[in-house]
Amino acid sequence: MEKAALTRELALRLPRYFRVLRQYVIQGRQKVSSGELSGQLGITASQVRRDLGCLGLSGQNGYGYSVKELHDALGEELGVFGGRTAVIIGAGHLGHALAAHRMFVGRGFTLIGVFDRDPAAVGRKIADLSVLPMDRLAEFCRTHHPHIALLAVDAKNAQEAAQAVCACGIKGLLNFTETELDVPKQIPVESVHVGDMLYVLSQRISDE
Amino acid sequence: MEKAALTRELALRLPRYFRVLRQYVIQGRQKVSSGELSGQLGITASQVRRDLGCLGLSGQNGYGYSVKELHDALGEELGVFGGRTAVIIGAGHLGHALAAHRMFVGRGFTLIGVFDRDPAAVGRKIADLSVLPMDRLAEFCRTHHPHIALLAVDAKNAQEAAQAVCACGIKGLLNFTETELDVPKQIPVESVHVGDMLYVLSQRISDE
């Protein structure tokens, strides 16, 4: 089956599929039904079949899907096996917390540099990397070609930092600053809105 | 129109609607069409109309929706106006970063306590709050009744910390540990998967 273009909603769901499937692989499971994935993801089984169909994946009647096949296809789609590299801009509390995140441990992304504009932060060790000054960024990128930059600076420094990484040939930006960034159109930006999940939780608690 | 029960997918979309509408309110806009919201959210206009219909909101032909009406209804649904309170468990880098997050500044949630099991962390100032030891949590909750706990501890301490807050009458848990928590069914848990957005970004960058 041919792959269709993915909608934004599906692109947002794929990491959730992958987390579930990763768990199944760890548990040594062989197969899974659309109904079970439906329960895990909180969407209908027919939506699951449509989603996987968009990736060219189809199940078998009475068997379901091969866990390994789904896991590998999703991992491929998400760039888990691509050996991609990342830098963190901002060596404050958030930068520290992100450097220790397990997405950089066996999840297909390698953290190769941490940068900060504050001279007091330069030279500190974060996740075995020495924090480098921002004026070393361009040279670093010419040598190491990081794919992704994680922006973990203060909101007021966000736009300047974003422009700096974009000028260095970064291919995508993960923005934790909650500032709307103005960057060249060809460089994709995803923003992590921590507050969103607080609101999702808030809908589920009672006020009694 | 009567309110229908919200699906999980819609519950996840509501904070995104709210962010867009909040921006419109700040800009002083009066009205918005389903087509425009559709573009902002990356879903179809008919999905926007269905979503808002689930909240009992309908637009007018040729006018669209009132920005203020949508904003207020969504804010109500998300508990933005409810004066809810939160504590953070874990005073490490992540706890520090969360305490400074703007979700606690004018977004309807007030941070009232930070706790840590490490005696070395106790007494430190985070966001004007003195870090308290975990053995003060029960007494604190009896007095202040926080609604939500943000779990920002190491993965290996996650389950123990979750049990502690659940035993103290917390109404909901925001889990940053990426550990699957085993807590009483009546206490909702939402997990923030920072790595998911890295994968969403990864889908959008080219490998050449």
Sum this structure up briefly.
The structure is a homodimer of 208-residue chains. Chain A is α/β, with parallel strands linked by helices.
What would you note in describing this structure?
2 copies of one chain form a homodimer. With 208 residues, chain A is an alpha/beta fold. The first copy, chain A, has 2 domains: 8-78, Arc Repressor Mutant, subunit A; 84-195, Rossmann fold (3-Layer(aba) Sandwich), CATH 3.40.50.720. The first copy, chain A, is 41% helix and 17% strand. Chain A contains 8 helices and 10 strands. Chain A has helices at residues 8-26, 34-41, 45-54, 67-78, 93-99, 137-144, 158-167, 194-204, and strands at residues 31-32, 65-66, 84-89, 109-116, 125-126, 129-130, 132-133, 148-151, 172-175, 189-191. Chain A has a 6-stranded parallel beta sheet, with helices on both faces. The first copy, chain A, has a two-stranded antiparallel ribbon with strand order 1-2. In chain A, helix 7 links the parallel strand 8 (148-151) and strand 9. In chain A, helix 1 (8-26) crosses helix 4 and helix 2 crosses helix 3 (45-54). The longest helix of chain A has 19 residues, at 8-26. The N and C termini of chain A lie far apart (52 Å). In chain A, 40% of the residues are buried. The interface between A and B is large, with 62 and 62 residues.
